[in-house]
Amino acid sequence: MKRILFILTICLISTGLLAQQNLDFSKKVEIISPQINSDNTVTFRLMAPNAKEVKLQGDWMPSEGWITKLQDLQKDETGVWSFTTQVLPSDLYSYTFIVDGLKVLDPNNVYQVRDVATVMNIFLIEGGLGDLYKVQDVPHGTVARCWYDSPKLDSPRRITIYTPAGYEAGKDKYPVFYLLHGMGGDEEAWMALGRASQILDNLIAQGKAKPMIVVMTNGHTSNTAAPGESSKGFYKPDMRAPDIFSGDMEANFGDVIKFVESNYRVKADKQNRAIAGLSMGGFHSLYISANYPNTFDYIGLFSPAILPPANAASPMYVDLDAKLKTQQDNGYSLYWIGIGKTDFLFQNVVDYRSKLDSMKFKYQYRESEGGHTWANWRLYLSEFAPMLFQK
Amino acid sequence: MKRILFILTICLISTGLLAQQNLDFSKKVEIISPQINSDNTVTFRLMAPNAKEVKLQGDWMPSEGWITKLQDLQKDETGVWSFTTQVLPSDLYSYTFIVDGLKVLDPNNVYQVRDVATVMNIFLIEGGLGDLYKVQDVPHGTVARCWYDSPKLDSPRRITIYTPAGYEAGKDKYPVFYLLHGMGGDEEAWMALGRASQILDNLIAQGKAKPMIVVMTNGHTSNTAAPGESSKGFYKPDMRAPDIFSGDMEANFGDVIKFVESNYRVKADKQNRAIAGLSMGGFHSLYISANYPNTFDYIGLFSPAILPPANAASPMYVDLDAKLKTQQDNGYSLYWIGIGKTDFLFQNVVDYRSKLDSMKFKYQYRESEGGHTWANWRLYLSEFAPMLFQK
């Protein structure tokens, strides 16, 4: 009898009805949302019998000017609001509901990502590009959150390091890919929004990318770690722009390399170092590779922000043309630039390419559809990683 | 001009107004929620001018029977609903809003945890116990998510491993603490809900706990990893009870020990092994330590579920009394049992203690306030870890 009571009670806990656990009001009726249909349309559902209006905002939806055009959901007689999309290409997507003007996460979908101060639900459509972003039954790398010293900055600083499957058990040395986030990001961004560990696991398992270590830093020198992961506590994240043109990230990047090369089995030479980043991280990758001109053989600028303001005083930003000339003379295997056709930084990239062209500085150029989005940055990572360390 | 446009556009992105980024409807007015006031009361706020009723559900709130009594928020003339709590003791807390019957996460608080299929916001009150759960300016350990082989199970399986500050740079060998989750958990639970890495960082920095490696497994043999981290994809989590009395977790625990002792610098002897778990993990810790009777010198049962059903056929569950006798004869340094006074498993623990008493099997007993809650399990970890490896 006691055992039956135990099982019953466990079942009660599982429905969230015990005060000792946490209530879940979404469970009175079993709602499936999002439901990926067999034709790759997606049905969203929300139980909200008292709502007057439920809208959907998703990152695949068209926009008018800067603003996404929201999609209305329709209510049925049971109080469930729903909407089914058109067929969506295989990819990872994000969305939220807006209920009577209030942003509401889907209570039936626990899969979420944070972008700066916004939390969104995510879902994945398989059968194409999305398969690269999915955890597959392949050997998995290890993802470690560590802290390294950077004596001239507020330190220790948090860093995310991916080591490929087989690293622990083996004795091989590996090449290293430094992968930098944008202005709204931190050392979690490429993992959470960029699906970096899934992309690397899958590309390596398919034989399309070399096994490599991927190092994801925090590019904001005014923070030691992602929101919630430092002694600042649970503060409200924002865009902390003041540090982005200080040059401190670039000037102290040697501490990152030193930490990695002291603590991991790496091939510590130029041929086995790559650096790439998105937006602000593209800006960082440009200046770090130019200021350490014989350090990286592979450089990737993803939707890069390129030029610091004229009053940016750091020596990191001085004499860029001369630094690029030195980098050119030293040589490199790949200088890769990717940008979306509707990215607000498109013209910056046109200007930068003109500069490079006028110097006969060789680079590969990739122009994609879309704008300044994680969809593009995941795509660029998927295309860039296979080109690394193939010599 | 271009640079000014660039800065302006970056600012626009930071307010979430660009369609290329994700809209955040919460930002029209700057709302602070939750606000921890200087007297340790907490003010919650939600902008919802169209709502008829906004309620708060928090894990510190009183309950009637099984159900938490919800707290009403009051609306002001700007459409902001608010409520201020009584003074709360220093701890980590979780909550959600209920808006016109719909569970709504606080759009102004990005800090969340998932418990099975429920996502909740969290906040922390400093100045006491909560300080142990906070990231402090102390040396930090590394937290790695790895995959290990367990040939008789669906494998590889995901595992979370904490190594203390100094592990990478040093050459010392460390003791190992195996820390197991409950029926609703996985290899993320002790990190996300249990604040294990913060507790260990802080206790070690204060000299209250020995530096140790902490190993957090996934105790559900029907899953290889936490929801979203395996090839099952983004399925809706539930309580997957079918595997809990199979004995497979216990029978294959040797694979975990083998992985840890092959891949980390550990002291691989009984004196330097501890095992503890909460609820189902307490059950696992009891049976693993009894079935491997000369392996663990420190055993912790936190709010343990204790007896498998009579039809549980695994050899792991057979002859418990004889196994306990062997464990008793072999000796151990600490057998610790903690339970809350209102825990639904309280009587099970009374019965188990009677059994131990009748055998003169020595144990330490800790009875706390409250029930089957993460507040208790964090507390137990904070008290148990300092007792480990002190010989």
TrEMBL record, chains A, B:
<dbReference type="GO" id="GO:0005975">
    <property type="term" value="P:carbohydrate metabolic process"/>
</dbReference>
<dbReference type="InterPro" id="IPR013783">
    <property type="entry name" value="Ig-like_fold"/>
</dbReference>
<protein>
    <submittedName>
        <fullName>Enterochelin esterase family protein</fullName>
    </submittedName>
</protein>
<feature type="signal peptide">
    <location>
        <begin position="1"/>
        <end position="19"/>
    </location>
</feature>
<dbReference type="InterPro" id="IPR014756">
    <property type="entry name" value="Ig_E-set"/>
</dbReference>
<dbReference type="Pfam" id="PF00756">
    <property type="entry name" value="Esterase"/>
</dbReference>
<dbReference type="GO" id="GO:0016747">
    <property type="term" value="F:acyltransferase activity, transferring groups other than amino-acyl groups"/>
</dbReference>
<dbReference type="InterPro" id="IPR000801">
    <property type="entry name" value="Esterase-like"/>
</dbReference>
<dbReference type="Pfam" id="PF02922">
    <property type="entry name" value="CBM_48"/>
</dbReference>
<feature type="domain" description="Glycoside hydrolase family 13 N-terminal">
    <location>
        <begin position="38"/>
        <end position="100"/>
    </location>
</feature>
<dbReference type="InterPro" id="IPR029058">
    <property type="entry name" value="AB_hydrolase_fold"/>
</dbReference>
<keyword id="KW-0732">Signal</keyword>
<dbReference type="GO" id="GO:0004553">
    <property type="term" value="F:hydrolase activity, hydrolyzing O-glycosyl compounds"/>
</dbReference>
<dbReference type="InterPro" id="IPR004193">
    <property type="entry name" value="Glyco_hydro_13_N"/>
</dbReference>
<dbReference type="InterPro" id="IPR050583">
    <property type="entry name" value="Mycobacterial_A85_antigen"/>
</dbReference>
